[in-house]
Amino acid sequence: MRDYKKYDTWKIAHELVREIYIISENFPKSELFGLTSQIRRAAVSIPTNIAEGCGRSTDKEFARFIEISIGSTNETEYLLLLSCDLGFTSEDKITDLNATLNLTRQKLIQLRKKLLNNN
């Protein structure tokens, strides 16, 4: 079984989640069960699926969970854009997060490719 904590991609995604929680803390209280919850769940899904995939027995199964993480990265990116457009946060605050999301997505794609080439 793989140790998810050894993957740089997981480490980056974990830090991203922490930052999303900090930023979303300032969203309107009326959004607690709306956008705040959604953006947090999408972000948490990234490292969570990496961790869950590490528990799978084959590279192909692990790659499937990496694909889900990639989708969650895209979802998080959109939700950050929406939160900015709605005035819940600023472009300055999401610029670094978007760079981290892009890095995470690139690393996930590379990992998926590597896993699928092992089969």
TrEMBL record:
<dbReference type="InterPro" id="IPR036583">
    <property type="entry name" value="23S_rRNA_IVS_sf"/>
</dbReference>
<dbReference type="Pfam" id="PF05635">
    <property type="entry name" value="23S_rRNA_IVP"/>
</dbReference>
<protein>
    <submittedName>
        <fullName>Four helix bundle protein</fullName>
    </submittedName>
</protein>
<dbReference type="InterPro" id="IPR012657">
    <property type="entry name" value="23S_rRNA-intervening_sequence"/>
</dbReference>
